[in-house]
Design a protein that fits this description.
The chain is an all-alpha fold. It is 72% helix and 0% strand. The protein starts with a helix and ends in a 6-residue tail after the last helix.
Length: 432
């Protein structure tokens, strides 16, 4: 009997060992799946960042791949890998209020399609980066890819300027006011203003890193990138972007490094002396005969009327072009389609209501405050420079938003949310 009980005990132990082996095998298989998903997500993020300003099609493809892999990962680990951020509730509020504005739209079907198609992109790129970029090496790779992509954009801008592209027949320039202005580059973007918006974001990021890092070689290379982008920015002839960038750099120089003011003043003088058309563009800001300025004032007046009549839910997400003809007193041409208010703040308030606008502002200001309050807290000068540059880029977008609405462009909005995501990643206490 004793031998029999020992035999039974031995068999049970073998069964337990086999069960344990099966469990270990399942754990290894599960971990292997998570590792594969992590690789797919990381390379999808890098591909998104590279193609962001180059190809909307490939950006969408890799965004879908990365988002799908991330959702599978969340299901596999039952959401344990999800990291909460200080902005989750604010973002949820912004998304909810934007969604509610659909019910105020004159075409709810269009607004709903536009909402989930665009808001989905913004939220997924934000949380893909926030939830899956967790090391300095990953951040460095992301920055390197972003810079490489921006240089391709700049190179194509130079190509357009050198080989020529006549824009006098397009709507970007008042031909009577600026008869000598034949070329405004737009590179891979839809128009020069959007390219300028992209460049001031990238130049702000680079400027922040130049101010903080000590390595001379890295500073030199970043300086070359900054100069090339600055020349390309000049070739857009976008007044609002020029003023935004100069204001941000001047303000930083005033409060942190007076030498920057001298360099900035010297560059401005040289540029104005080299190209008289730039001075004419700047002076035209206060010229009442400039068609572009007059149109903006008229659009703002019409948009304020929209806000006053639809303060709660707005006129509906993405519905500005449908509602504007009802308030148009300036253009009065059915063939002309006005898609936004040329003012970021008025456009948000008009389309998603005052509460929705305030939620967006809370989100933007919150990320800005996080960035500028963490510019000297990291041991890595690169990370300090990145937070400074990211904060300055948001300031540039905010200033430029008074005269334009470049976030109407999908790629620039995705870049805006990408920059916000990088701020959260850098400011994580557990960043490795």
């Amino acid at each position: 009997m004793e031998n029999l009980s020992l035999l039974i005990s031995y068999i049970k132990n073998i069964e337990r060992v086999n069960e344990l082996g099966e469990i270990v095998g399942k754990v290894k298989e599960h971990n292997r799946l998570l590792m594969i998903l992590d690789v797919v997500i990381e390379y999808s993020i890098l591909a998104i960042v590279f193609f962001l300003a180059l190809s909307s099609t490939w950006t969408t493809v890799f965004l879908i791949i990365g988002s799908f892999a991330w959702l599978i990962k969340l299901v596999q680990d039952r959401g344990r890998s999800f990291r909460r951020t200080p902005f989750d509730k604010i973002i949820a509020c912004f998304v909810t209020l934007s969604a509610l504005s659909i019910f105020a739209s004159p075409d709810m079907g269009f607004s709903f399609y536009n909402f989930y198609n665009l808001m989905g992109r913004y939220i997924f790129i934000y949380y893909l980066v926030v939830q899956n970029i967790s090391t300095r090496n990953q951040l460095k790779c992301l920055l390197s890819v972003l810079l490489a992509s921006s240089l391709v954009v700049v190179a194509y801008g130079f190509y357009q300027y050198i080989y020529g592209i006549d824009v006098t027949s397009m709507l970007w320039v008042d031909g009577e006011q600026f008869p000598e202005l034949k070329t405004r580059v737009f590179s891979t973007m839809q128009n020069p203003n959007i390219l300028a918006g992209y460049l001031i974001v990238m130049m702000s990021l680079i400027f922040g890193m130049i101010c903080k890092i000590n390595a001379k070689k890295a500073k030199f290379l970043l300086g070359i990138c900054f100069v090339l982008m600055g020349v390309c920015l000049g070739m857009t002839y976008c007044r609002g972007a020029w003023i935004s960038l100069v204001t941000v750099i001047a303000a930083y120089g005033l409060f942190h490094n007076r030498k920057i003011l001298f360099g900035l003043a010297l560059v401005c003088v040289l540029v104005l002396a080299f190209d008289a058309s730039i001075a004419e563009r700047l002076v035209s800001v206060v010229n009442i005969s400039d068609t572009s300025s007059n149109m903006r004032f008229a659009l703002w007046e019409s948009t304020v009327a929209m806000i006053s009549e639809h303060p709660l839910l707005g006129i509906g997400w993405g519905s500005y072009w449908m509602v504007y003809p009802e308030y148009d007193f300036f253009i009065q041409n059915d063939a002309v389609k006005i898609v936004h208010a040329h003012n970021m703040y008025l456009n948000f308030a008009a389309e998603i209501g005052i509460a929705g606008f305030l939620s967006f502002m809370a989100c933007m200001v919150g990320h800005l405050h996080m960035a500028l309050s963490n510019t000297h807290l990291k041991k890595s000068n690169l990370l300090n420079g990145l937070t400074l540059g990211a904060g300055l880029s948001i300031v540039c977008v905010a200033i430029n938003g008074f005269t334009d609405y470049v976030l109407f462009n999908i790629e620039l909005s995705m870049l805006f949310w990408l920059v916000n995501a990088m701020i959260v990643v850098v400011c994580k206490k557990e960043l490795n």
